[in-house]
Automatic annotation (TrEMBL):
Localization (cell): Cytoplasm
Biological process according to GO: carbohydrate metabolic process; fructose 6-phosphate metabolic process; protein N-linked glycosylation; UDP-N-acetylglucosamine metabolic process
Cellular component aspect of the GO annotation: cytosol
Record's catalysed reaction(s): D-fructose 6-phosphate + L-glutamine = D-glucosamine 6-phosphate + L-glutamate
Highest rank taxon of the organism: Bacteria
Gene name as annotated: glmS
Catalytic residue list: K365 (for fru-6p isomerization activity)
Coiled coil: none
Source species: Cohnella luojiensis
Record protein name field: Glutamine--fructose-6-phosphate aminotransferase [isomerizing]
Length: 370
């Protein structure tokens, strides 16, 4: 077993550390040599068919759905087509409006999740084209979807998904850019600009991983609390949801993710002296708004950890108790970096509390019952 873990204590930690490779492998061969366009030859959907699509549904479960929430931001930003996201176990039962011009994207690490597979079949029954983003070649989802983008994260053993999630983000970036270049919502220079930033992500994750020990110390401030909050705005909110799920899955600490501006409409009542709040502040255009949301929590006694962009350290220090800085990238790409400290935090919290990191109670890696 030790050999399989390549010297790491747990599969989860190994898989967190495999993310730079997973990003490189998922991008490999999909970016032109001159770095100016995306090639996805595996897609059967034609340029003409892509031009006809006028709505997107992203359907998945658990962590894969959280990748889909980022995917919504990515597609709406790059392609300017409305995207809805839905929990696979709800989608099928609510008579979703699916037309032949709807592209349904199912996201599944295993490609075997029963609810996701059922949603795929329902979408096809209603005449939609289905694109699958999955990590497993030959899985049920991969076999039945009309188009497939394989993430090359490699096998994921730990129940708590890490590298599969972040590779799904890379797949969304690539697909969003491919679609944008195909229908012309982004010109070549804009696509090249995003691709250049994407190619720096693996190295930037390595930089974050090199500071993992910092988070080990921070964990003391959360592991003895029974409840905490993750807050963020925009794409940070999507990442906050994944951070919260990760923590719950393996540390069993109750947490909630909140759109930061929504806190004052109810949840602020739960903040008291010492309540841990993890605040994501990677979106420059929402930075001031986030600072004021953080102040709202501080005024009620919250103990705040800020996940911030490099360069803001001195300024943010006035508003938070602790901080962790991630390297600078484009606003749309930040989830591929900001999720890493949250994964590490969950890992260290689980470890500190003496839980089975790789096999949390009550959970399975792949859920093949509806
Ligand atoms: C299970 C796993 C989660 C995962 C979800 C969806 O609940 O414990 O980590 O996100 O299934 O799995 P999938 O294989 O479809 O991505």
């Amino acid at each position: 077993m030790t050999a399989e873990k390549a010297g790491f204590d747990h599969f989860m930690l190994k898989e967190i550390h495999e993310q730079p490779k997973a990003y490189r492998d998922t991008m490999l061969g999909r970016i032109s040599d001159d770095g100016r366009s995306v090639a996805l030859p595996e897609l059967k959907i034609t340029a003409e068919q892509l031009k006809e699509i006028n709505r997107v549904h992203i359907v998945a479960c658990g962590t894969a759905l959280h990748a889909g929430l980022v995917g919504k931001n990515v597609i709406e930003n790059l392609v300017r087509i409305p995207v809805e996201t839905d929990v696979a176990s709800e989608y099928r039962y609510r008579s979703p409006i699916i037309t032949p011009d709807t592209l349904v994207i199912v996201v599944s690490q295993s490609g075997e999740t029963a609810d996701t597979l059922a949603a795929l079949r329902e979408a096809q029954r209603c005449g939609a084209r289905v694109l699958a983003i999955t990590n497993v070649v030959g899985s049920s989802v991969a076999r039945e979807a009309d188009d497939v983008i394989i993430t090359l994260a490699g096998p994921e053993i730990a129940v708590a998904s890490t590298k599969a999630y972040s590779s799904q983000l890379i797949a969304f970036f690539l697909f969003g850019l491919y679609w944008a270049q195909t229908i012309g919502t982004k010109d070549e220079a804009e696509v090249a600009h995003v691709l250049a930033a994407m190619q720096s992500l693996p190295e930037q994750v390595e930089k974050i991983l090199a500071q993992a020990e910092v988070l080990k110390e921070v964990v003391e401030s959360i592991s003895h609390h029974s409840s905490l909050f993750f807050i963020g705005r925009g794409i940070d909110y999507a990442v906050a949801m994944e951070g919260s799920l990760k923590l719950k899955e393996i540390s069993y600490i109750h947490s909630e993710a909140y759109a930061a501006g929504e806190l004052k409409h109810g949840t602020l009542a739960l903040i008291e002296e010492g309540t841990p709040v993890i605040a994501l502040l990677t979106q420059e255009d929402l930075y001031e708004k986030m600072l004021s949301n953080i102040k709202e929590t501080k005024a009620r006694g919250a103990d705040v950890l800020g996940i911030i962009n490099e360069g803001h350290e001195a300024e943010v220090a006035k508003s938070v108790d602790r901080q962790f800085a991630i390297p600078r990238t484009l606003p749309l790409l930040t989830p591929a970096l900001s999720v890493v400290p949250l994964q590490l935090l969950s890992y260290y919290a689980s470890l500190a509390l003496g839980h089975d990191v790789d096999k949390p109670r009550n959970l399975a890696k792949s859920v093949t019952v509806e």
